[in-house]
Write a sequence for this structure.
C-alpha cells in the first residue's frame, strides 16, 4: 500500500486474548495492510494501562461515533453485539467476534436491518469453520439441504455452567455427547464454545440457527487439539464431509489457529456494503 492512501481505522472492543492479539498485530503489521488502530475499549479499563496509549482508549461505547472508525471488531462477549451492534453499524462496518449473539432472533434481525440501512457490512469471522464460503454459495444457489457441525474438545477446554457443565465433568474417563440438536438452543448454553457453529448458521441463512444442527462433544483423549467436523448435504445426492484438527494448548477454549484466522478475517473486511459477509 502506498503511504498516501487513507488507512482503514480499526476499533477493538474487548481486550482479552483475542483483543490483545489483534491490537499487537495492528500496531506491528497494520500499516503494511492499510490498517491503523482507532481505539481500544475494555469493560475494565485498568487492563489497558501500560499497553494502550491514553489517546487510543475509548472510555464509553456510546461515544463510538466520535472516533471515526471504519471497522469495529467485537472480541469481548455476545452481549456487546446485542446491546451496541446497531449503533456500531450506524458508525462503521462491524465484525462480530462472538456470533453466538445472533442466535437471539431479535438481534440477528436488528443487525441485518441496520447493516442494510446504513450500507455498512456485518462481518462474521469464519473462526474454525472450514469451507464457509462454499456453504454460503450452496445456500445462495438454493442447493443446500442440511448442515451439521460437530465440535469435540477436551472437557477442560469448555467454559460451561449448568447442565452441560455437569455433563462435561462426567467426561474425564470417556467421550460424552453434551448436546445434539438445533444450534439456536445451544448458543446461550455454550456461548464461548460454539462460535464456529454460529458462523455456519450465518453462512447458511436458508437453514439458519433452527435448521443447522450442532453436536458438542467432550472427549478426554483430545488433550492438545480440538476437532471441528462439518457434514453438508445438497440437492441431487451432493455431500461434503470435512474434519479439521485445530491445535490447542491444554485447557484452552480458543485453538491456536483461530488467532491467525481472526487476523486473516480482519484483512478481508474492506467494506462490502449493506450485507452480511462471511470473512
Ligand atoms: N468467532 C470465533 O471463532 C471465536 C473464537 C474464539 C473466541 N471467540 C469469542 O470472542 C470473545 C473474546 O474471546 P477471548 O478468547 O479474547 O476471551 P477473553 O476471556 O480472553 O477476553 C474477553 C474480554 O472481554 C471482556 N468481557 C467479558 N465479559 C464481558 C461483558 N459481559 N461485557 C463486556 N466485556 C466483557 C473481558 O473483560 C475480557 O477483556 C468471546 O466472546 C469468545 O466467545 C470467538
Amino acid at each position: 500500500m502506498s503511504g498516501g492512501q487513507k488507512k482503514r481505522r480499526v476499533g477493538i472492543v474487548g481486550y482479552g486474548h483475542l483483543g490483545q492479539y489483534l491490537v499487537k498485530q495492528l500496531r506491528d503489521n497494520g500499516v503494511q495492510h492499510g490498517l491503523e488502530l482507532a481505539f481500544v475499549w475494555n469493560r475494565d479499563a485498568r487492563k489497558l494501562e501500560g499497553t494502550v496509549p491514553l489517546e487510543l482508549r475509548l472510555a464509553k461505547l456510546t461515544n463510538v461515533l466520535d472516533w471515526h472508525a471504519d471497522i469495529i471488531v467485537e472480541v469481548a462477549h455476545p452481549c456487546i453485539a446485542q446491546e451496541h451492534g446497531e449503533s456500531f453499524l450506524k458508525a462503521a462496518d462491524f465484525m462480530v467476534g462472538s456470533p453466538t449473539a445472533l442466535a437471539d432472533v431479535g438481534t440477528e434481525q436488528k443487525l441485518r436491518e441496520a447493516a442494510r440501512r446504513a450500507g455498512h457490512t456485518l462481518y462474521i469471522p469464519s473462526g474454525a469453520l472450514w469451507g464457509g464460503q462454499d456453504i454460503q454459495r450452496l445456500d445462495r444457489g438454493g442447493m443446500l439441504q442440511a448442515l451439521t457441525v460437530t465440535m469435540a474438545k477436551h472437557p477442560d477446554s469448555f467454559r460451561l455452567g449448568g447442565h452441560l457443565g455437569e455433563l462435561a465433568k462426567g467426561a474425564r474417563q470417556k467421550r460424552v455427547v453434551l448436546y445434539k440438536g438445533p444450534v439456536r438452543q445451544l448458543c446461550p448454553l455454550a456461548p464461548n464454545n460454539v462460535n464456529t457453529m454460529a458462523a455456519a448458521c450465518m453462512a447458511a441463512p436458508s437453514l439458519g440457527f433452527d435448521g443447522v444442527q450442532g453436536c458438542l462433544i467432550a472427549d478426554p483423549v483430545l488433550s492438545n487439539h480440538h476437532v471441528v467436523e462439518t457434514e453438508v448435504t445438497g440437492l441431487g445426492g451432493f455431500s461434503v464431509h470435512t474434519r479439521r484438527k485445530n491445535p490447542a494448548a491444554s485447557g484452552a477454549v480458543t485453538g491456536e489457529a483461530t488467532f491467525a484466522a481472526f487476523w486473516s478475517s480482519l484483512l478481508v473486511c474492506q467494506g462490502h456494503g449493506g450485507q452480511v459477509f462471511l470473512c
Q: What stands out?
A: Residues 14-19, 42-44, 75-77, 79-80, 97-99, 125, 127-128, 192, 195-196, 254, 258 surround nicotinamide-adenine-dinucleotide (CB under 6 Å). The chain has two domains: 8-127+259-278, 132-254. The longest strand covers residues 144-153. Residues 202 and 208 are 6 Å apart (CA to CA).
